[in-house]
Amino acid sequence: MSDEEDAEDGRTAATEPGGLDGLEDVLDTLAYLLTRSQEHERRMARAGVTAARSDVYLLRALVETDGPSRVSDLAARLMVKSSHVTRQIDRLQGQRLVERTQDTQDRRARRVAITADGRELIDRLKQANLASLGNVLDGVPEPDVAATVSVLRHLIDRYVHRVRIGLTEDDPLPDRADAAAPRPAARLGTAAYDGG
Known about the structure:
There is one protein chain. The protein has helices at residues 3-8, 19-34, 37-47, 53-64, 71-78, 82-94, 116-136, 142-165, and strands spanning 98-102, 110-114. The chain is mainly α. The longest helix is centred in the last third of the chain and has 24 residues, at 142-165. The protein is globular and about 55 Å long.
């Protein structure tokens, strides 16, 4: 079954145009479509990139940081275990996409930085993604795109905050000013980090 057939298999945009139910349906469908392995492979091929989805998010996290990062900081940012990030770094270092450097504040620790090759890979992927988004959103007014970005960033901020402080679904969220959290790498991508 193709991705297009999967999308038509009852997982289409909500029939209700608004409200939380409609938003949940739209977000669920969008996540489903954007995390299809065939779509990931098509996007990678358009960019001339061979990389696992989780590796792309790690590289994007490194692009967003100001200088080399600790493994524990990357793991917290990506909301995965440090051991997972360490395995990814080993793989990416073998491809010369990242490098380990000495931590100037802790001689026992190492930091990770993206290489020029890693940055070039992410730049190619971003350009391919922007071209694809431009095609998909052709004819959608710019104010609608800007409003969508604003709402989705707000959703991401609050979701990440909830996950990081361990709130349950029934716990109230603090006011927006109290919910500030570092942006996850996912905001640069087109789908939520899958942890794999």
